[in-house]
UniProtKB/TrEMBL annotation, chain A:
It comes from Caloramator mitchellensis. Its EC number is 1.8.1.9. InterPro entries: FAD/NAD-bd_sf, FAD/NAD-binding_dom, Metab_Enz_Cyan_OpOx_G3PDH. This is Thioredoxin reductase. Keywords: Oxidoreductase. GO terms for molecular function: thioredoxin-disulfide reductase (NADPH) activity.
Length: 418, 480
C-alpha cells in the first residue's frame, strides 16, 4: 500500500490535519484510527464547551468531532477505523493491523502523528495502600459512564483538579453519586477556572488544595481513602490525616503524550513536554514526519489542537510537494523565567507565512504580569496578563516581520511581574 | 472418593498436582480463590535462585539448587517465559567480601554449579550500570527470572489436561478424620480422600491445626515492591542482590522476564495475613537501599507498587512431612523464599513421601507433558500474524495497546481448561492491562469480552478476588 500521507490517530488533531492537507493539494491520504469510530477522546466528552474559538459556539465533544468527520467525508478522504498502527520507522513505513487487512505495511511520503495522550495512573504517582477495585482514572470512568452506560461508584473521592477530574465530579453528581471531595496536591488547580465554578462550586463539592491521598483501604473494593495536607515539598504532614469512607477513588493526575510509536521510530522527545521536538510546521526530528495535538503537548482547549493540526497539515503538504525550505535562518525557542515549555521549539523563518502562534505553559500562578518576548536578548514584544496559571495554556501571536533577523538566534519568553 | 486432595493452588499445590498427574491417581486440587496462584505466588521477586543462600543440610539447601536445574526442561514443556540471566551478589567492603566467600562455600555444598567470585572491574565490565562503590560480587550463572503466575497457570492447565480435578472458589473450612482417610469440608462442598497434601501457604497452619494436635503457626512476613516501565527494563542485565546486612535483606534490582524492572522487597513481620498493602515507609526503604546497587534508579518510570507475604515459621526451614498424629496427611508448609525456585524439587520430594505411605502407585502411560501457551501475537513473524488473522479475525484486533494484546489472545485465555474469570486473571494470562497505562484504556473492553464469553452481565465481572466488583450498575439507576 502506498500513500502520500498517512495520519495516525483520528481525534480532532488527526481529522483537522488530514482535512488541511487535502485542502492544500495532497491527493492520496489515509487516516488510521484504532477505535471503533473517529473523534478520539471527544466522543466521550459529552459536556459542552468545545469550539468557542473555532466556531464561536458551545458544542459538545461529539458535535465538535462530527463537523470535522463530515468535512472529511465531503473531501472523500480515506480512513480506516478499528485499525492499530503498531510501528512506524524513519523510512516512513507504517505497519498496521486490522481484522480485514491483517498485518500490512504502508509506504508514505509523509506521516502526521496525532495519537493523543494517556492518563497517569496510581502507580505513576505511587499511592501506597491496598489494591482493590474501585480505583479509576477519570477518563476511564468517563468512558464507562458516557459510552458504555455503567456507573463506577456511589461515594467518590477525586484526586487531582485537572479538567477531566472536575468534569467528572459534576457528571457523577448528576448520575446520583456523592462526590465527597476533590483533592489537589498543588496550591492551585490545573483545570480551567470555568470548570471549577461550573463543576464544583455549583454543586457544593469541596476542593482541598495542598492535600493528597496517602492510603487506600479495602481488600476487594475501595472502602475509604486517607487524605493529608502536604508541606512545601509536597510531603504529607503528620497529624493532618482525615479518613473518607467511600467506594471509589478517581484519579485525574495528569496526561502523558502517547509517544511509544514516535520513540521507537527514533524521533527526539522533549523532556519538558514529553512530546516530540517540532518546528514551525510541526515537523519532528525526522524529516517528513509531523506531529500535532496532545501527542506533542497536552492542550486544554480543543480549538488550539485544531489550529496546531492545521499547521501540521499545511506543513506536510508543503513537504510532499517539495516546497519546504530547509536552509535559512533558524530561531530556537527558549524558556525564560516562569515558562515551563514553548511549542514549537524551532522556527525556520523562511517557512513562516505571515504569523505564528506560540503555545506555552507557565510554572506557577502570576497575577498582573507581562510576557516578554525577546529575540536574541532584545524585547520585541510584550503582552500584559491579568492572571496566568499552569492550568491554562498561553498563546503568543508573532508576525513574521517581528522576527526579522539575518542570523540563527534564540527567542525567549519570560514572565515578568508588574 | 479421591486418592489425593491437595489444598491450595499456589505454585506448590499446582506443581504437586502436575507431578501427581503422571500417576494413575484420582487427584483433587482445592483452592479458595477464584484463580490459581493468586496469593503469595503472584507477588514475589520472580527469581529462580541459584541455591547458595540456604544452610547446607536444610530442606531449602537440598531443594533449591535441585529445583533450579529443572526449570529449563519444565519451561520448555509448558511454554513458560524463563530466562537464565544470572545473578550477582554485590559486596561493598571487605566484610561483605568475606560474606561472599561464605555464600560461595554454601553454594558448593548445596551442589550449585558455576559460581564465581568476581572483581569490581569484571563486574562493571559485565554491567556498567552497577554502582562504582562495590568491591566485588558473587556471580551465579544459573540464577534466572520467570513469570511466576504463567508458570503456575501452566502447571495447573497441564495437570487438568492429565486428569486432575480442580475446584476453585472452595475454601476449606474443616477436615474430619475418617476410616478411609479424610473428609474435607469447604464452603461449597465436601470431598472424601485417602490422603491430604496441605499447601495452603499462609494458612497451612490453620489447615494443619484442623487435624493435628501438633500445632503450627505461620507468621506473615511482608515484602514490598516497585515495578517500573519497560523503557527502563534493561537498566541492569542481571539479578542484582546485596549482601544480607542490617540495611536490607535481599533488596534486589532485576529485569523481569517481560522486560520491566523490579525493585524490592523489604522484610517486615506482621500479624495480619491479609495485609497485602504497601506503605510509604516500606516503599521509601526499598528505594533507599536499591540506590546503593545501581548508578541511577529511574523511579519516575514506576507503573505500580505491590506487596507479598512470605509464610514463615519458627523452624526457619520448609516443613515437608507427614503429620505425626495424622496418617496420610502431608504438610508442605513454611514455603517462604526460595519456594518458587524449589517448587519442582518439592513436588518430587512429596511424591516420595506419598509413595512411602501408599506403597504402590503406578505411572500413567499416556501422560502428556506438553502444554501449549496462548500465542503471543505481537511476537509472531509477519506471515504467522497474517495466517492467524485469516484463521481467526479476533487476532486482528488489539485490545490492550500498551502490550499489544489482541482480542484473540483474551478469548483464548477465557476458554482454557483453567480459564480466566476476572479482569486480573486475563491480565496474568496474556498481560492485557499490565502495561504503563495499567488497564486505563483496555479494562472496559476486557470486561465486555469477559461478560460476552461467559454469558454474564458486565456488572458481574470482578477485578480480582471475590467481592472486587467494578461497576455498580447501569447509569441512571440511582436517580429515578
Ligand atoms: C476528558 C477530557 C475533557 C476535555 N474537555 C474539553 C473541553 O471541555 N473543551 C475543550 O475545548 N477541550 C477539552 N478537552 C481537550 C481536547 O478534547 C483534547 O485536547 C483533544 O481531544 C486532543 O485531540 P487529539 O486529536 O490530539 O487526541 P485524541 O482526541 O486523544 O485522539 C487521538 C486518537 O489517536 C488514536 N490513536 C492513538 N494511537 C493510535 C495508534 N497507534 N493507531 C491508531 N490510532 C491511534 C486514538 O484512538 C485517538 O482516537 C478535553 C480532553 C479530555 C481528555
Ligand atoms: C516478598 C516475597 C518474595 C519472594 N521471592 C521469591 C523469589 O524470588 N524466588 C523464590 O523462589 N521464591 C520467592 N518467594 C517465595 C515464593 O513466592 C513462595 O515460596 C511461593 O509462592 C509459595 O507458594 P505456595 O503455593 O506455598 O503459596 P501460595 O501461593 O500462597 O498458595 C497457597 C494457596 O492456598 C490457598 N488456601 C489457603 N487457605 C485455604 C483454604 N482454607 N482452602 C482452600 N485453599 C486455601 C490460598 O488461597 C493460596 O492460593 C518470595 C515470597 C515473597 C512473599
Amino acid at each position: 500500500m502506498k500513500y502520500d500521507l498517512v495520519v495516525v490517530g483520528g481525534g480532532p488533531a488527526g481529522l483537522a490535519a488530514a482535512i488541511e492537507a487535502r485542502k492544500n493539494g495532497v491527493e492520496r491520504i489515509v487516516l488510521i484510527e484504532r477505535d471503533r469510530e473517529l473523534g478520539g477522546i471527544l466522543q466521550q466528552c459529552i459536556h459542552n464547551g468545545f469550539g468557542l474559538h473555532v466556531f464561536g459556539e458551545q458544542l459538545t465533544g461529539p458535535e465538535y468531532a462530527e463537523r470535522f468527520i463530515n468535512e472529511l467525508n465531503n473531501l472523500k478522504i480515506e480512513y480506516l477505523t478499528n485499525t492499530m498502527v503498531l510501528e512506524i520507522n524513519d523510512k516512513k513505513e507504517v505497519y498496521i493491523l486490522n481484522q480485514e487487512l491483517g498485518f500490512r505495511r504502508i509506504e508514505a511520503k509523509a506521516i502526521i502523528l496525532s495519537m493523543g495522550c494517556r492518563e497517569r495512573t496510581r502507580g505513576a504517582i505511587g499511592i501506597p495502600g491496598f489494591r482493590p477495585a474501585g480505583i479509576f482514572t477519570a477518563g476511564t470512568a468517563q468512558r464507562f459512564i458516557n459510552i458504555e452506560g455503567y456507573m463506577v461508584g456511589k461515594k467518590v473521592v477525586i484526586l487531582g483538579s485537572g479538567d477531566i477530574g472536575l468534569i467528572m465530579a459534576r457528571r457523577l453528581t448528576l448520575e446520583g453519586a456523592k462526590v465527597l471531595a476533590v483533592v489537589e496536591l498543588m496550591p492551585y488547580s490545573t483545570g480551567l477556572t470555568r470548570n471549577i465554578v461550573q463543576c464544583l462550586h455549583d454543586y457544593n463539592i469541596p476542593l482541598f488544595f495542598e492535600h493528597t491521598v496517602i492510603d487506600i483501604k479495602g481488600k476487594n473494593r475501595v472502602e475509604g481513602v486517607t487524605i493529608a495536607k502536604v508541606d512545601n515539598n509536597r510531603v504529607p504532614i503528620r497529624g493532618t490525616e482525615v479518613f473518607y469512607e467511600c467506594d471509589t477513588l478517581l484519579l485525574s493526575v495528569g496526561l502523558i503524550p502517547e509517544n511509544e510509536l514516535s520513540r521507537n521510530a527514533g524521533i527526539e522527545i522533549d523532556a519538558r513536554t514529553s512530546g516530540p521536538f517540532v518546528n514551525e510546521s510541526m515537523e519532528t526530528s525526522i524529516e517528513g514526519i509531523f506531529a500535532c495535538g496532545n501527542v506533542v503537548h497536552v492542550h486544554d482547549l480543543v480549538d488550539f489542537v485544531t489550529q496546531e493540526a492545521q499547521r501540521a497539515g499545511r506543513g506536510a503538504a508543503r513537504y510532499i510537494k517539495g516546497e519546504a525550505i530547509d536552509n535559512g535562518v533558524v530561531i530556537r525557542t527558549v524558556n525564560g523565567n516562569g515558562i515551563r515549555y514553548i511549542v514549537p521549539q524551532k522556527l525556520r523563518l523562511e517557512n513562516l507565512n505571515d504569523e505564528i502562534n506560540l503555545f506555552m505553559r507557565v510554572d506557577n500562578i502570576y497575577n498582573n504580569c507581562r510576557l516578554d518576548v525577546k529575540l536574541d536578548g532584545k524585547i520585541i514584544k510584550s503582552f500584559k496578563k491579568r492572571k496566568v496559571t499552569p492550568g491554562e495554556m498561553e498563546t503568543v501571536k508573532l508576525k513574521k516581520s517581528d522576527l526579522s533577523t539575518y542570523n540563527d538566534c534564540s527567542l525567549s519568553i519570560e514572565v515578568v511581574k508588574e | 472418593m479421591f486418592d489425593v486432595a491437595i489444598i491450595g493452588a499456589g505454585v506448590i499445590g499446582c506443581s504437586i498436582a502436575r507431578e501427581l498427574s503422571k500417576y494413575n491417581l484420582n487427584v483433587a486440587l482445592i483452592e479458595k480463590e477464584n484463580d490459581v496462584g493468586n496469593v503469595t505466588t503472584k507477588a514475589n521477586s520472580a527469581i529462580i535462585h541459584a541455591g547458595y543462600d540456604a544452610k547446607p543440610g536444610t530442606l531449602k539447601g537440598k531443594l533449591n539448587a535441585k529445583g533450579n536445574l529443572m526449570f529449563d526442561e519444565l519451561c520448555r514443556e509448558l511454554e513458560v517465559p524463563f530466562k537464565r540471566v544470572g545473578s550477582l551478589v554485590l559486596a561493598f567492603d571487605d566484610d561483605e567480601m568475606k560474606t561472599l566467600g561464605k555464600l560461595y562455600e554454601q553454594g558448593i555444598q548445596n551442589g550449585v554449579p558455576e559460581l564465581y567470585i568476581l572483581s569490581k572491574e569484571k563486574v562493571l565490565e559485565m554491567d556498567p550500570n552497577i554502582s562504582d562503590n562495590i568491591k566485588g560480587a558473587l556471580y551465579a550463572k544459573t540464577g534466572g527470572i520467570i513469570g511466576p503466575w504463567e508458570f503456575t497457570i501452566a502447571l495447573a492447565e497441564n495437570a487438568v489436561e492429565n486428569g486432575v480435578n480442580i475446584f476453585l472458589s472452595n475454601e476449606v473450612v474443616d477436615i474430619e478424620k475418617k476410616d478411609f482417610g479424610y473428609r474435607i469440608i469447604t464452603n461449597k462442598d465436601t470431598y472424601d480422600t485417602k490422603y491430604v497434601v496441605n499447601c495452603a501457604g499462609l494458612y497451612a497452619d490453620k489447615i494443619n491445626n484442623m487435624v493435628s494436635n501438633n500445632k503450627m503457626e505461620i507468621i506473615p512476613r511482608r515484602g514490598q515492591y516497585y515495578l517500573l516501565d519497560k523503557t527502563v527494563g534493561n537498566l541492569v542485565k542481571y539479578v542484582i542482590f546485596q549482601c544480607p546486612s542490617k540495611l536490607g535483606k535481599g533488596v534486589l534490582v532485576t529485569p523481569t522476564v517481560h522486560g520491566n524492572l523490579l525493585i524490592g522487597p523489604d522484610a517486615e513481620d506482621l500479624i495480619d495475613k491479609t495485609a497485602l498493602n504497601t506503605t510509604s515507609e516500606g516503599l521509601n526503604f526499598i528505594v533507599e537501599v536499591a540506590r546503593r546497587s545501581v548508578k541511577t534508579l529511574p523511579l519516575n518510570m514506576a507503573i505500580t507498587n505491590f506487596a507479598g507475604l512470605r509464610a514463615r515459621t519458627e523452624r526457619d526451614d520448609f516443613i515437608i512431612e507427614e503429620a505425626v498424629d495424622a496418617k496420610g496427611f502431608i504438610n508442605v508448609a513454611g514455603i517462604e523464599s526460595p519456594g518458587l525456585s524449589s517448587a519442582p524439587a518439592i513436588s518430587l520430594y512429596v511424591i516420595d513421601i506419598l509413595k512411602n505411605i501408599a506403597k504402590k502407585i503406578e505411572k500413567k502411560e499416556n501422560f502428556n507433558p506438553y502444554r501449549r501457551a496462548i500465542p503471543k501475537f505481537i511476537e509472531l513473524s509477519e506471515d504467522e500474524k497474517n495466517e492467524l488473522v485469516k484463521k481467526d479475525k479476533r487476532f486482528g484486533k488489539i485490545i490492550c495497546r500498551c502490550e499489544s494484546i489482541t482480542e484473540g489472545e483474551i478469548v483464548s485465555a477465557i476458554h482454557r481448561n483453567v480459564g480466566a474469570r476476572t479482569v486480573d486473571a486475563v491480565k496474568r494470562r496474556v498481560r492485557a492491562g499490565m502495561g504503563r497505562c495499567q488497564g486505563g484504556f483496555c479494562s472496559p473492553r476486557v470486561i465486555e469480552i469477559l461478560a460476552r464469553e461467559l454469558g454474564v452481565e458486565m456488572t458481574e465481572i470482578e477485578k480480582d478476588h471475590e467481592g472486587s466488583y467494578i461497576l455498580t450498575g447501569p447509569t441512571k439507576s440511582e436517580v429515578q
